[in-house]
Amino acid sequence: MLCTIVGVGEGVGAALARQFATNGYQVALIARTDRVTRPLSERLEGEGWRAAPFIANAGDVSAMDQAFLAIKEWGGDADVLIYNAAVMRPGMASEMTAENVLGDMTTNLGGAICAVGSTIDAMKIRRRGSILLTGGGLALEPYPQWTSLAAGKAALRAYGLALHKEAAFHGVHVAVVAICGIVKPGGLFDPQHIAEVYWKLHCEPEGSFTREIVLLPEGGDPYYNDPQGVYRAMSQPIKAGKL
């Protein structure tokens, strides 16, 4: 069994690698450099699990295609694909340029489409597999200082929900995980707790696929990016998940 993770850093990506590795999955770790993925894969291998780093910029289609070909040679077809890459470009909405936003979108959305295209056909043939996309609260309630990322997460969410409806007919589970807060070890958004949510999604049986999880603390505010409540009266409540 193989889990491929695109966008592996020291937080959620590393926790996801450990979560799936310790449940018996080979893990293929994709990042722009091997600064994190190489020592992480070496630690996992030292513990008796099978892991390997692969280098690709998620916004570079050619590099992604090459990485997925290398992964197929290394571990076969993926049973799980996790897309966790994003460009974190700050900037107000009025300051954004089309060049900036479209450039960021090659990673925030384009990389996910490329990764899915490299894996979903084999999943459909086998009628099993999970594609899990890391979303964010910005897709639900944008924050002006992070306009480009908000646009990217909103686009990824729309893509993921559309793909969920299509793929479910083929036995493939697609879900979006909206992380509504700052990831920090030991905090409300501890990476290991988040990784356990992804694992539970992957374990859901066909016919009971969840399409989206909104990660908030118990009783949390889904409009946390609108602290003054300016737009709440004009919006419908979002059903919040539990963390």
Describe this structure in words.
With about 240 residues, the protein is an alpha/beta fold. It has a single domain, classed as Rossmann fold. About 40% of the residues lie in helices and about 15% in strands. The chain is built from 6 helices and 7 strands. It has helices at about 10-20, 35-45, 60-75, 100-125, 145-165, 190-200; strands at about 1-5, 25-30, 50-55, 80-85, 130-135, 175-180, 210-215. It has a 7-stranded parallel β-sheet, sandwiched between helices. β5 (about 130-135), α5 (about 145-165) and β6 form a beta-alpha-beta unit. α1 (about 10-20) crosses α6, α3 runs parallel beside α4 (about 100-125) and α4 (about 100-125) packs parallel to α5. It is globular. The two termini are about 25 Å apart. The relative contact order is 0.13. Mean pLDDT is about 90; it is low at about 230-243.
In short:
This protein is α/β, with parallel strands linked by helices and 243 residues long. The protein has helices at residues 12-21, 37-46, 61-75, 98-126, 147-167, 191-202; strands at residues 2-6, 26-31, 51-55, 80-83, 130-136, 173-179, 212-215. Strands 3-2-1-4-5-6-7 form a seven-stranded parallel β-sheet, sandwiched between helices.
